[in-house]
Design brief:
The chain is an alpha/beta fold. It has twelve helices and 18 strands. The strands form three sheets. Strands 1, 2, 8, 9, 10, 11, 17 and 18 form an eight-stranded mixed sheet that branches. The chain has a seven-stranded mixed sheet with strand order 6-5-13-14-15-12-16, with helices on both faces. Strands 3-7-4 form a three-stranded antiparallel sheet. A hairpin with a 5-residue loop joins β5 and β6. Bound molecules: flavin-adenine dinucleotide.
Length: 376
């Protein structure tokens, strides 16, 4: 039977929630992580992580890969849908990894050091003198919203009704049969990315060991299913995916950092990860910002000395802005161009090795210019 009073109650046991608990494991604080699901659980995701995440979370790769998929990535094939693919390759250490979220999230949660409250959905919270009472049962000084894009804590502090431009995405991951493995032309170390000509999103095919992950995300949920169908038909025509590939993709959504309008703190409340809307604008990578927001939140929490007023938590907002920049930066030269011209430029640029390697992969996807956030 779980206790009913905690210093910190984290709602959501995904990478954001488990990373926060892990970062506070030696703080002496009494922490619980509540999730509506029982782990290991499925999560709609391509499952691509940058090495910075592994360093920030001090993951021992040899230990991790003993019983889990850890697919090294050494390059990418990039193209605009329908155009020639350009291949970039990196010598030396892997530039990214493919993980399966069902394994990765469970690994992080089990080692995080907090009490885990499985199969318990957050329903509501009532203010108390010391903090909050959650679901009428659990008392806590600080509620952390880590419940992903549809986080109920974010809604409770006002995200409901805000007009937000979210990425809508669909994905499938399945274990290939021996015949499919033999027929699959996707190289495991080289994920393939296909940008849509209207510049609103991209699709991917990503082989991780025996698993194949296919998906497409767009900053426009309109007709998402037909975009996905067209993409899959294109992949079949190109011989990219093997016969018998399941066609039932699962959908989910998330916010890019520059499109989120959510407030991330309130009295005795703080949001991290997708709940706060933090994914990188160009790539849609959300795991690294989820982890980093948790590490930043942990620093703020340690400095609060158990007094989690909005004024004290404001330090977290400053840390987020220092790390991720302004939420609504001024448009760059490319963004100021008329759409027709922008599409033309993009199409030309996507056919140059320089742009696909130095800008698309190095800058947008690998963020090689941003060092990992390591604890001091
Ligand atoms: C199709 C797709 C592909 C993606 N691919 C990538 C990728 O390759 N790499 C990458 O970095 N990012 C990717 N992302 C983004 C990434 O998945 C998210 O940014 C990341 O999962 C955010 O982590 P989180 O911990 O904030 O939230 P989540 O991982 O969503 O975890 C939230 C948790 O909260 C729980 N929860 C929700 N509601 C409640 C409730 N009421 N009560 C209790 N618990 C609750 C959920 O069960 C869940 O376990 C992708 C997203 C999509 C949709």
């Amino acid at each position: 039977m779980s206790k009913s009073t905690y210093d910190i109650l984290i709602i959501g046991g995904g990478p954001a929630g488990s990373s926060l608990a892990w970062a506070l494991r030696d703080s002496g604080l009494n922490i619980a992580t509540m999730d509506k699901q029982v782990f290991p659980r499925q999560k709609v995701c391509a499952g691509w992580v940058t090495p910075a995440v592994m360093q920030e979370l001090e993951i021992d790769l040899a230990d991790y890969s003993q019983h889990r998929v850890l697919q090294p990535i050494t390059g990418f094939k990039i193209s605009q849908l329908g155009q020639q693919q350009l291949r970039s390759h990196y010598a030396g250490e892997p530039v990214s990894y493919g993980i399966r979220r069902i394994e990765f999230d469970d690994y992080l949660l089990q080692r995080c050091g907090a009490e885990i409250l499985p199969a318990q959905a957050f329903k509501d919270m009532q203010k108390t003198d010391e903090g909050w009472s959650v679901n009428g049962q659990i008392k806590t000084r600080l509620v952390v919203g880590a419940g992903g894009h549809f986080c109920p804590v974010a809604r409770a502090i006002g995200s409901k009704g805000i007009s937000e431009l979210a990425v809508a995405a669909k994905e499938i991951e399945f274990e290939m049969t021996p015949e499919q493995k033999a027929a699959c032309t996707i190289e495991a170390e080289i994920p393939e990315l296909f940008f849509t000509p209207d510049l609103l999103g991209y699709g991917w095919v990503f082989r991780k060991g025996d698993y194949l992950n296919i998906g497409l995300g767009r900053e426009d949920k309109h007709k998402l299913s037909s975009h996905v169908e067209n993409f899959c038909a294109y992949l079949i025509k190109q011989g990219k995916i093997p016969a018998g590939t399941p066609q039932k993709l699962q959908g989910h959504a998330y916010l890019l950092y520059n499109h989120s309008r959510r407030k991330v703190i309130d009295e005795n409340v703080l949001l991290i990860g997708d709940s706060a809307g933090l994914a990188y604008p160009k790539s849609g990578e959300g795991i690294r910002p989820a982890v980093e927001s948790a590490l930043l939140a942990a620093e703020t929490i340690k400095n609060c000395h158990s007094e989690y007023s909005k004024a004290k938590l404001a330090d977290y907002v400053t840390r987020l802005e220092q790390r991720f920049g302004e939420r609504q930066p001024k448009p760059d030269i490319m963004e100021k161009l008329p759409l027709g011209l922008k599409k033309l430029f993009a199409s030309r640029l996507m056919q140059t090795q320089w742009f696909t390697k130095n800008i698309v992969t190095d800058k947008w996807f690998l963020q090689t210019h941003v060092p990992p956030l390591l604890s001091q």
